C-alpha cells in the first residue's frame, strides 16, 4: 500500500509521514519545499515538490490512498484559505477519483459541520473546510473525515474521545495524537466511510474505529 500525504511538511503531515515510514509503509510526500523533509528516513519515501496552486495530479500515480493534511496556515489571508483549504482539497478529491484511489483521509476541523454556529475570524476557514468535506462526501470515494479539536503541541497519549466535550477548554487534541490516529486509519485494510470529531480523551483509537 502506497500512501500519498498532501501537506507532508506541515506539523501533522510530517509527523504522520515519519510514523508511517517507521512502520514500513511506502509514502509519497507532496510538499512545496523538499528540504523540510531532509531529516526524515529516505527508505520508502518519495518526495514530490509541487505547489498546490499548480497541477499536482501526477503525485497520485500508483498510490493506493491519500491523506490531505495541507492547510493555508494562520498567517495567510482569505485568498490562500480559498485556494488551499477549499480549492486544492476539491482538486485532490477529483484527482483521487481519476486515479481510482481506495481511500481518502481528510484532515478537517471541529466546527466544519456548521460554520454558521461559529462567529469568529476563523469562519472563512471553517466554510472552506465544510465545502471541501462536502465535495469528498459526495464524490463516491471511500473516505474518512477527521475533525480535530483545538490543536496543541503536546506529546501523544494515544488516547481519545469522539464526543465533543461540553467545555471548550477540553475540546483539544495534540497534533501528535492526530498523527497517530491518521496512521492507524491509513493502516487499516477495511475502509468504511465516516466523519468524526476527535479530541484527547481516555480511550484508545480502537474504541471508535474497528
TrEMBL record:
Pfam families: NAD_binding_10 (PF13460). Residues 7-186 form the NAD(P)-binding domain. Gene3D superfamilies: NAD(P)-binding Rossmann-like Domain. This is Oxidoreductase. The lineage of its organism: Bacteria, Pseudomonadati, Pseudomonadota, Gammaproteobacteria, Alteromonadales.
Amino acid at each position: 500500500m502506497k500512501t500519498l500525504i498532501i501537506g507532508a511538511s506541515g506539523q501533522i503531515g510530517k509527523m504522520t509521514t515519519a510514523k508511517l515510514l517507521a512502520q514500513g509503509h511506502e509514502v509519497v510526500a507532496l510538499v512545496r519545499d523538499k528540504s523540510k523533509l531532509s531529516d526524515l528516513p529516505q527508505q520508502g519515501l518519495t518526495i514530490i515538490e509541487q505547489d498546490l496552486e499548480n497541477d499536482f495530479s501526477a503525485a497520485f500515480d500508483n498510490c493506493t490512498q491519500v491523506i490531505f493534511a495541507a492547510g493555508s496556515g494562520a498567517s495567510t489571508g482569505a485568498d490562500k484559505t480559498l485556494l488551499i483549504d477549499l480549492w486544492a482539497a476539491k482538486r485532490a478529491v477529483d484527482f483521487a477519483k481519476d486515479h481510482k484511489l481506495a481511500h481518502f483521509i481528510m484532515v478537517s476541523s471541529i466546527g466544519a459541520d456548521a460554520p454558521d454556529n461559529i462567529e469568529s475570524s476563523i469562519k472563512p476557514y471553517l466554510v472552506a473546510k465544510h465545502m471541501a468535506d462536502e465535495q469528498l462526501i459526495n464524490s463516491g470515494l471511500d473516505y474518512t473525515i477527521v475533525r480535530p479539536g483545538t490543536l496543541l503541541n503536546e506529546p501523544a497519549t494515544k488516547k481519545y474521545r469522539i464526543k465533543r466535550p461540553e467545555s471548550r477548554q477540553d475540546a483539544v487534541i495534540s497534533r501528535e495524537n492526530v498523527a497517530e490516529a491518521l496512521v492507524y486509519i491509513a493502516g487499516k485494510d477495511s475502509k468504511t466511510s465516516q466523519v468524526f470529531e476527535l479530541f484527547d480523551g481516555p480511550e484508545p483509537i480502537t474504541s471508535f474505529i474497528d
